Every structure is written in C-alpha cells, then in structure tokens.
Fold these 2 entries.
Entry 1:
Amino acid sequence: MSNSTAKIGTVYLVGAGPGDADLLTVRAARLVMNARVLVHDGLVDPSILAMAPRGCRMVSVAKQRSRHTMKQQDINALLVREALAGNDVIRLKGGDPFVFGRGGEEAEDCFAAGVPVQVVPGISAAMGAAAAAMIPLTHRDSASIVSFVAGQCKGLTDQNWAGLAGVGRTLVIYMGVATAEAIAEKLMADGLAPDMPVAVIENAARPEMRVVRGALAGLGAVVADNRIKSPALIIIGEVAGRGDMMELKKVAEMAA
Ligand code: SAH
C-alpha cells in the first residue's frame, strides 16, 4: 500500500505559556483558534483550551494534576498517527515546548516518521514567575548567570550542582516541590550559604498565584508549611532577596 498521494499533516509543538491566555504568543493564539486536532497536557489553562473552535477534536494527555497519564511513547505515536492520517496537529504544552517539555522527543519521533514539525516558543514558567513575582532573574548587582534545573530527575543526588547557585547566580528549579529539602541540603553540602534567599512561586501567572520567601536552610519547611503544590518554581539566589518588589509595585499602583 502506498500513501504517497496522501497529504501528511504538520505537528505544531506550541508553547502555551505559564497560565493566563494573554501570555500566549500571537502565533500560538492563531494556531489554537484554527485547530482541528489539539493535543494538550494538564498544565494548559482551560481559558486557552476554550479558544479552540467548535468542532476541534481535543485530546488530553494530562501529564500533570491527573491520575491518568499517557506514556510519552504513546503521545509521540498519537502525534505521528494523526499527522500521517493527514491532520495538522496542534500539540499544546505548558510554558515552552523545549524547556522541560519533552518537545525534543516528540519532534525526533515525528521526524523519524517523516512528519514535519514546527515549534512555536512559549513563555517558560521561569519568565512567567519572575515577572509575576517581581523577581528579576538577572540584575547587574546580583546575578549575571541563570540556570534552569529539573529538581525531579533521575539521580538527583548524583547531579553536579556545584556552580549552579551562589553569589552572582540565579538557580531556577522546575519540578522541585517534592525534592526541595534534598536540593537545599545538597546545595549547602556543596558550600552554599544557608542564608541564601529563596522564593517559591506556586501557580505563577494565574489568579491563584502564591509567592513565599525564605532562606535556603528553611526551604524544605517553606514548602511544607505552606503546603506548596505543583506547579511551583523555586528561585534560589540574591535576586530572590532584593526586597519585596511586589509590595513596591502595589504601593506605586495605589499612588498612581
Ligand atoms: N515546559 C514548561 C515546563 C514543564 S515542567 C515550561 O517551559 O514552563 C513542569 C514544571 O514547570 C512544574 O513542575 C513547575 O515547576 C513549572 N511550572 C509550569 N507552570 C508553572 C506555573 N504556572 N507556576 C509555577 N511553576 C510552573
């Protein structure tokens, strides 16, 4: 059987940003509004899914906040199958598809099957959280290096954390809620000061956002005492301790 005459669809790996629909790129919004087949994970805000047109086939592969999770291989196979059947597929992911989004694996499997892929970048949680919590990731007086690290990964303790955090550096940890205490201990064992400021941002760029602050030695307690839940981001570094700009923002807004 030959399908040489059948049109192969394109898989669009689209970043949905950290939450609010108005943090979508214009290109992402256009693709969602014209979607015929939309495959999304659990981090994508319902307000964004609501932008899809009537008749769009929506497939949830709920990677977060759900008991039902499709295996990555099955997701890849689904994208390939839909595209080979001639459908353009909007694969909508929280944040940016190429920042801890496994977009690379999906693209590789699509290319292996001869399926074209386009990537539409999104605002990653680090940028969304920094803006919403008023924590600049770099600052001429406090940080000129930023690292993004996955806290929940194979061999957390084997990972070489030395140099990722410290004076003049900002460390942003994704997926680190469950391992926060272990990460803090590892960083202190590697020589980081126990009083290094930390901030934890839960549900950044969403109405229910919470920001809690503390010091590295108390990171585990900050997470536990506030019952921080995923999705949350941990920021470690002097930038997290540069005064509370969220307060200053409110004061300025009230005075304006
Ligand atoms: N591709 C996504 C990251 C997926 S990994 C991106 O670029 O943002 C999932 C992790 O991202 C979560 O465990 C959490 O650490 C972080 N995250 C995603 N959305 C978030 C949000 N609105 N607020 C805080 N953290 C978020």
Entry 2:
Amino acid sequence: MQFRNFKMVSYVVYGRGSFNQLDEILAPQRKGDAPMVFLIDHFFENKPLVNRVPLRGKDKIIFADVTFEPKTKQVDALAQQLKDEFGTISGIIGIGGGSTMDLAKAVSLMMTNPGSSADYQGWDLVKLPGVYKAGIPTLSGTGAEVSRTTVLTGPTRKLGMNSDFTPFDQIVLDPELTKDAPVNQRFYTGMDCYIHCIESLEGTYLNEFSKSYGEKALQLCQEVFLEKDIWNDSCDDKLMMASYAGGMSIAYSQVGVAHAVSYGLSYLLGTKHGIGNCIVMNHLEEYYPKGVEEFKKMVDKNKIDIPQGICKGLSDEQFETMMNVSLGMKPLWENALGKDWEKIMTKDKLRALYEKL
Ligand code: NAD
Ligand code: ZN
C-alpha cells in the first residue's frame, strides 16, 4: 500500500477583513522590481474591492473573463502576455471564484514551465515550481483554494494540471468577499462543496482523514442551506470553511458519480461545474439515496431552479462523446462504485442516466 504524501497550501489566513493584510503578506515575496500581478474576476471591475488592492511599483491588475471555464489557450495567452511585458514577475494573486483561482494557479506554473499548459494536463507532469501564487476566493464551494489541481479545458480534454507544484503558496480566506454573490451562483457553487462531501463520505476511498473533514463540511452545508431561513454574515463565514474542509476531504479521497457525469456535460455542452453537478445530482438517488434526498430539500428551501432536459435532442455521437469523457474519469468511478465499477456502470446504464438530465 502506497499512501499519498500530499503537498498542502503553505500559508492560510482566515477572517473578516483579512484581505487588508495582503500588502504585508506580499511584501517579503517581492523580488526586486518584478511586479505582483492581480488576476481579478471581471465581476469586480469598477467595484470598491479594486481600490483595496495593494498596488506597488509596476504591479498590474488583469481582469479575468470567466464567462466560460478556463481554457489552456487562455492560460497560455496570459502567461505569454506577462512574459512579453515583464520578463518575469514576483507572483500572481487570483481573486475570484474557482475559475479565477484556477487561472492564477495555471499561469503561475506556465511562467516557468516550457510549452503549453495543455502539455501538463494530467497527473504529475509539471516539472518546475511556478512563480509565487496566492488565492483569494470570492465564492465558496469549489475547494480550488486548497486543491492540487487546476481544471482546464484543452484541445483534446478537460483535465487538471495535478501536481505538487499546483497548490497555492498562500490563501486569504475573507468571508466578506463573498457577500455580494448572487443567490443562484452561491447555491450552485455551495452545492459543489455539498456534493464533494457526499461523494467523499459515500466513496470506497474513504478514510478517517477524509471523513473528519467531510463530516464537518457537510454539517456546515446543512447549517447554511437547511437550517437558516435568512442568509447572514455567519453563513458566509461557515460556507467558506465548508469549502476549505470539503476540499481537504477530497484531497485524501476522491469525488464520484456526480462529478464524473458532470464532466461529460461540461466538455460537450460547456455546462459550468457547479450547475452541472446539481443537474446530475438531481438524478442520482440510486447511488446516493440520502444525499440526493437532502439535496432536493436544499433546492426547495432555497427556491432554486435546477435546469431539466438539457440532453434532449442530442445525437448518438454526442452521447458517445459525453460517455467517453465521463468513463475516462476512472478514479472517480472506482471511488464511487468500487474496483468492479466497469461491470456496474455499463454504457447502456450511463446513456440512460444522461438521457434523464
Ligand atoms: P466561477 O469562478 O466560474 O464564477 C461564477 C460566476 O460568479 C462568474 O460569473 C463570476 O464572475 C461570478 N462571481 C465570482 N465571485 C463573485 C462575487 N463575490 N459576487 C458576484 N459574482 C461573483 O465559479 P465557481 O463555481 O467558484 O468555480 C467554478 C470553476 O472552478 C470551474 O471552472 C471548475 O472547473 C473549477 N473547479 C476547480 C476545482 C479545483 O480543485 N481546482 C474544484 C472544483 C471546481
Ligand atoms: Zn467539484
């Protein structure tokens, strides 16, 4: 038995207003006059948060267009732009949801590793540490702030750059930053965390490490999405910690059926991660009976619409593409269904599931 020896985020600060410590946190990371680059979710363009970014010298703000999930082409272009303009940079700080944080991680790695980010989609292909990178979530749920991956859509696949060089050097968890998230988006991204918990806790890879974090994250999700009638600051505080703990839970286990099926949707139809997981989870009673029942209660309580019928009218070829992407996620299926998963999740069965969505 070989146990995973995993690299974690090096520094964590948590608390309302902790964003104000950013200048102090970055000071020792500055290398001569090489700038810090702040990659900020485009939602914050012209918003007060931008005026709080501690710009020094040649520092630069770039607004990240996250209309679509990050692509390898977008990462390569950003890294090239920074190399052309500055040669080298002191670091990159991603401020936003999972998409912006993933972009920041990937650009950091591509400032030092040769070629295209598409060359590194997979496990442990990244050879060199990137430049200093920090992550500051403005949405809670993905766990991208703690994970060792950055999910990218490339020319041939949607797959992360999974490596020990991928985790952030620093994260700043300031729940104040999630205050203005729209109700639907907050729910979809929050459910990403809830689904991480269910998939981890119900999976065959579960161990006490994953369970400890998963149970805590699950409890926090229940508190904010089931027990509270009105959203308040403490919900933002809790959901940010749920995201962190949910991410830690899957670091030592794996996600499962909802993610494996949702990856197919996202590859073919561009369905975004959070909402795609919700669309799939809605139909997974067979695999996660208790989790799906509770998920449906959360949907009702928070008055959220989960899209239906998104696979209507797709061709056989399109179903085939989705199924191939999904079945390619072997560790997810193995975690969910055990070593004999291929006998359980046959193509017919998967096709029937996609047809329900
Ligand atoms: P997101 O980053 O895609 O953002 C969704 C929307 O919310 C965007 O329109 C954005 O502009 C907006 N937004 C962000 N913060 C806001 C705020 N405070 N107020 C108002 N609007 C705000 O959403 P997400 O669900 O956080 O991230 C999904 C992405 O994360 C996907 O690309 C997925 O692949 C990735 N992901 C990565 C990991 C990982 O481990 N690296 C894990 C899960 C998901
Ligand atoms: Zn997820």
